[in-house]
Structures are given as structure tokens and as C-alpha cells.
């Protein structure tokens, strides 16, 4: 399988631009030579794996000099691993890892016959229930509520395999996804840009709603009869209303010009189908009707925080091995994936960011049937590198959603009785800052003044960014961050080889060339070499390794 390098259009002297144009031809020659002769051509065409540069700890606990990297060695933890195989060596951070789905996946144990989660997506039904235009009397209330954007943001269907693959990396202790290169999360800024929900506002502390009170609320605020309300709540077997029932009430009162009743039913149906969707797939909690008692005052809530708290809660539940369903607003999660990970999963694009006219960014995306199952996606996510991430995807959306510094608030968020930690110091690269080793997560069980902390957020913002600096490259981290991260986390879900020692490899990511064109050349060559598991000592790949070294010298 020798390759005549002279037949390749890349010569000894060339520019980065010419190499960018010629590189696909060179790689095609390699692919045709190697993969067709080995019968692996179809495997290559269908593969979207990307591998990071990794080094394993040696017997002395240090990282050896790497072949494809900058050549410098780093120091790892001196102590031998004492935690879970494939999981954290230091178990002080992920204290619930014993029950986490990732611990079981490492040993090939699935949640059940279906590896993917059951996900509550209401997009198709909601699209059929949301009218093209509301009556002006209702439109005014809906617009002032801050929830109007939710009428159009839902994906018709959810890629359950894609969503499930990311849920397997969520950890409720840190409110973040644990990726091979560090932590990432869905932030308040993401919610603001994707859904156009208000971030600033008050949290909601509801009263308990019994079945009897659920009946009274329906009579007083939805305009139904006592007997109708009793019959319906009884059929729900708890303090719930059916989404379909709320839609019928909306239609009835709209026809009767009972605008307040119609608006409350409509808004409750809307949030029950989106940000407050639960795992019943058909019901919404009756207590949420209390949010809309005063239609002129419901604009004061932090709906963005409400969406995030609810999704964080369900992500935490679904990350446990025993859970098989995901609640919350899956459109928010899937569109977040589409924005940050352009090479992962399949999606349709309704318009590019340059053509946006102020619509929520979630409306940019549409559902496309994915071909990869969750167990196909696991190794793909395992091999992602920082260059596979668009770290600040919404910078071209600032004309419609200016960045709000409250999104850097570090503290607890609360909605109802649910309290979750919100920790932007663990995903600083998403805000344009250099990532440092973050402080231990907050214990929200001990939080007593969450509302006060939220109102006086300024000091926490100073604390978060005061220990960092603006990143010089999008994925910049401080020295020692990855070594720390690989001691306390489980960055991989699948062992590279089932019969191999189950130590966790620590990646050392190349800073790469300074010129953008040469950086692109370097990335393309490196990805191909990793896809075919090329070794520099292999003569059939020596020319591509030489091209790689040339690109890195610019």
C-alpha cells in the first residue's frame, strides 16, 4: 500500500491556501489505497470519530513525552488511582458516581433493552395547538408575560439518541456535562439566546396544591364548573391538569370571548408543553396555574431560570442508572448541542445566523432523523477535542440579546421547591475566559438566602471572573487544569479496548499554529491520522506526518 507522494498535488513548497485545497485529494489517495485494499472503505465513509491526542500515565505516574504534541511532558497525580475504574480517581467531587449511568456503561451495562431514554417532546402537538395569531386581547397578555417566544421554539421531534448520549455525561453535583476536555453546561445566557426568555426576575415559591385546591383553582381561574373540575382532577389521579383539556378550555373561552380564562389556559398549556414538561408526557402540575392568577404580574418572574432549574433537575434524575425517562424541555438541550457541537448529530438549518431577523436561536434548527444510536455516539463524544466546539456561538446574536452579567452569577437557582447549583466558574470558556480549577460545588441544601444572593449577584460575578483572565484562544485553560479534571471526573464513557487496563488517559491538546489557514490544515491532517490510528513510524503515513509538522511550524 505504498503511496507515490509525487502524485499528490501537495509539494515541498506550498502555501496554506493551496494545501487546504489539495489536502482532500491527498487524503482521498490514502483512503482509496488503504481502506479499499483492507475492506474498510464503508467503515471509513460512515465514521465521524475524532480522536484527541492522549497520553497514558506511566508507572511513575507521569505523562510521557507525546508523539503528536508540543513535546513537553506534564506532571500527573503521583498517587495510584483509588476510585472507580473509568471514573474519578479522587471521589470527593462526584459523590453520586456509584449510582451514575456512566459507571455501568464503562462495564457494558445498559439501562435496559432500550439504551436511549424516553424523552418528553411535545413539538408536533404544540405546533397544531398554537394558532397563527392570537386575538389582540390575548396577544397583549401573552407578550407581556415574557413567554410568547415559546410558541414557536419547539422542535417537531427530538433525537433521543443524541440527547441521551449527552445526558450520560451530566453530573448533578456540578450541574455540568463532563466532556473529554473539561466541563460544559447550559447557562442562563444560552437560555436567553435560544429561547428569548427573561433572565432577570424573581424566583417562585409556591404553596402546596391538593386535589381539592386544584379543583378550586380550575373553577376560579379557568372558568369551568365545579363538577367538571372535580371529574377532571379525579381522572388525573393527583393535582394535575391534562394538556389536551387545557387546550379545549382555551378554544372554548376564545370562542366565548372570555379572554382572561382563555389566556390562563393557553399559557398553562404552553409552559406545560415546554419548560415545565414532565415525564407523564400528558399532564401539567395544577400549582403552575397560580403563576397566572394575575395576568398583568406574571412578567416579573425569571422564566429563564425556571426553564434551567427544571431541566437541571430532570438531567440529574436521568443521569442515574435506574432512570429511563427525561423530563424538562428537550428542545433546549438539543438546540444547545447543535450550537456548540456542529459535527455531532444530524440537524436541519432553517436559516444561518447572518440571516436572522431577531428570532430565538432555537428556531434556527429543525429535526432531521439521525442514523447514529446512543452507543455509536458514545465513542464519538469520547474523542471530541476543544477544536470541535464553537465556544461562543451567540456572539453574532448580540444585536437581539445583549450579554447580561447576571449570567456569571455563581450560586443556587430555585423554582418551587427545586434548588440547583448554577456554577459558571466550571465552564468559563463558554464566556470567553480562561478556565481555571473551580471551587468545590455549592451545597444547595445548606443555602438559606437564595433570593438575596440572586438580587445581590454582583459580588459572585467578581469572584468568578476575578480569578481568571480573558482567553487568548477559545479553549484556553490554566496549567494543571486537565490533570486535576482527569483525577476527579470520568471524561470517557467507553474503554478504548475492553481488555486493556482501565486507566483514564490524560489529553494534551496542541496549541497549534498561529495562522488560521495553517491551523485548519493542521486540524484536517491530524483528524485523518487519528481516524485511521496512524503511527508516525508507519512509512505509509510518513508524508502526511511531515505535512503535519510543516503546518505546525507556521
Give a quick precis of the structure.
This protein has 554 residues and is mainly α. It is built from 19 helices and 13 strands.
How does the SSE layout of this entry go?
Blueprint: H1 16-38, H2 41-46, E1 54-55, H3 101-106, E2 118-119, H4 123-129, H5 136-145, H6 160-167, E3 170-171, E4 176-179, E5 182-184, H7 188-195, H8 211-222, H9 226-236, E6 240-242, H10 243-255, H11 259-272, E7 283-285, H12 303-318, E8 325-326, H13 330-340, E9 347-349, E10 365-367, H14 374-382, E11 411-415, E12 418-422, H15 450-455, H16 458-466, H17 481-488, E13 506-507, H18 516-531, H19 542-552
Parallel strand pairs: 2-8
Antiparallel strand pairs: 1-13, 3-4, 4-5, 6-7, 9-10, 11-12
Helix pairs in contact: 1-18, 5-11, 6-14, 7-12, 8-9, 10-11, 18-19
Task: Summarize the structure in words.
The chain has 554 residues and is mostly helical. 37% of the residues lie in helices and 7% in strands. It contains 19 helices and 13 strands. The strands form 6 sheets. A 3-stranded antiparallel sheet has the order 3-4-5. It has a two-stranded antiparallel sheet with strand order 1-13. A hairpin with a 2-residue loop joins strand 11 and strand 12. The longest helix is centred in the first third of the chain and has 23 residues. The chain is elongated and about 80 Å long.
Amino acid at each position: 500500500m505504498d503511496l507515490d507522494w509525487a502524485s499528490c498535488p501537495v509539494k515541498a513548497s506550498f502555501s496554506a491556501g493551496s494545501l487546504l485545497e489539495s489536502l482532500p485529494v491527498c487524503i482521498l489517495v490514502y483512503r482509496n489505497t488503504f481502506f479499499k485494499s483492507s475492506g474498510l472503505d464503508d467503515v471509513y465513509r460512515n465514521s465521524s470519530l475524532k480522536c484527541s491526542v492522549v497520553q497514558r500515565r506511566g508507572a511513575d505516574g507521569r505523562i510521557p513525552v507525546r508523539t503528536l504534541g508540543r513535546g513537553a511532558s506534564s506532571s500527573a497525580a503521583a498517587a495510584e488511582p483509588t476510585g472507580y475504574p473509568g471514573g474519578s480517581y479522587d471521589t470527593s467531587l462526584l459523590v453520586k458516581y456509584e449510582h451514575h449511568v456512566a459507571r455501568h456503561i464503562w462495564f457494558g451495562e445498559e439501562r435496559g433493552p432500550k439504551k436511549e431514554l424516553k424523552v418528553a417532546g411535545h413539538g408536533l402537538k404544540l405546533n397544531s395547538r398554537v394558532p397563527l395569531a392570537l386575538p389582540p386581547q390575548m396577544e397583549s397578555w401573552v407578550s407581556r408575560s415574557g413567554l410568547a417566544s415559546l410558541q414557536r421554539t419547539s422542535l417537531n421531534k427530538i433525537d433521543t439518541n443524541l440527547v441521551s448520549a449527552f445526558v450520560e455525561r451530566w453530573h448533578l453535583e456540578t450541574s455540568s456535562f463532563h466532556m473529554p476536555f473539561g466541563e460544559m453546561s447550559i447557562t442562563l445566557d444560552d437560555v436567553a439566546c435560544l429561547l428569548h426568555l427573561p433572565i432577570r426576575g424573581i424566583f417562585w415559591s409556591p404553596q402546596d396544591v391538593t386535589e381539592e385546591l386544584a379543583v378550586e383553582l380550575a373553577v376560579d381561574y379557568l372558568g369551568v364548573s365545579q363538577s367538571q373540575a372535580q371529574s377532571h382532577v379525579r381522572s388525573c389521579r393527583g393535582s394535575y391538569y391534562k394538556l389536551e383539556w387545557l387546550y379545549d378550555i382555551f378554544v372554548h373561552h376564545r370562542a366565548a370571548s372570555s379572554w382572561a380564562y382563555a389566556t390562563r389556559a393557553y399559557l398553562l398549556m404552553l409552559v406545560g408543553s415546554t419548560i415545565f414538561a414532565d415525564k407523564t408526557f400528558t399532564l401539567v402540575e395544577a400549582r403552575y396555574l397560580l403563576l397566572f392568577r394575575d395576568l398583568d404580574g406574571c412578567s416579573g418572574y425569571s422564566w429563564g431560570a425556571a426553564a434551567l432549574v427544571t431541566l437541571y433537575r430532570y438531567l440529574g434524575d436521568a443521569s442515574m442508572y435506574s432512570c429511563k425517562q427525561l423530563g424538562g424541555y428537550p428542545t433546549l438541550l438539543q438546540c444547545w448541542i447543535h450550537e456548540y457541537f456542529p459535527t455531532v448529530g444530524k440537524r436541519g438549518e432553517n436559516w444561518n445566523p447572518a440571516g436572522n431577523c431577531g428570532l430565538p436561536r432555537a428556531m434556527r434548527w429543525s429535526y432531521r432523523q439521525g442514523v447514529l444510536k446512543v452507543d455509536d455516539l458514545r465513542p464519538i463524544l469520547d474523542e471530541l477535542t476543544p477544536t470541535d466546539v464553537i465556544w461562543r456561538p451567540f456572539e453574532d446574536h448580540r444585536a437581539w440579546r445583549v450579554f447580561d452579567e447576571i449570567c456569571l452569577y455563581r450560586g443556587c437557582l430555585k423554582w418551587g421547591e427545586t434548588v440547583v447549583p448554577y456554577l459558571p466558574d466550571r465552564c468559563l470558556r463558554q464566556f470567553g475566559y480562561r478556565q481555571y480549577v473551580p471551587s468545590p460545588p455549592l451545597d444547595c441544601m445548606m443555602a438559606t438566602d437564595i433570593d438575596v444572593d440572586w438580587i445581590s449577584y454582583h459580588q459572585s460575578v467578581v469572584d468568578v471572573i476575578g480569578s481568571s483572565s480573558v482567553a487568548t484562544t477559545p479553549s484556553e485553560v490554566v496549567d494543571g487544569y486537565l490533570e486535576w479534571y482527569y483525577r476527579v471526573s470520568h471524561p470517557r464513557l467507553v474503554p478504548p479496548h475492553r481488555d486493556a487496563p482501565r486507566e483514564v488517559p490524560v489529553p494534551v491538546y496542541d496549541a497549534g499554529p498561529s495562522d488560521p489557514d495553517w491551523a485548519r490544515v493542521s486540524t484536517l491532517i491530524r483528524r485523518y491520522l487519528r481516524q485511521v490510528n496512524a503511527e508516525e513510524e508507519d512509512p505509509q503515513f510518513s508524508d502526511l506526518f511531515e505535512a503535519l509538522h510543516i503546518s505546525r511550524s507556521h
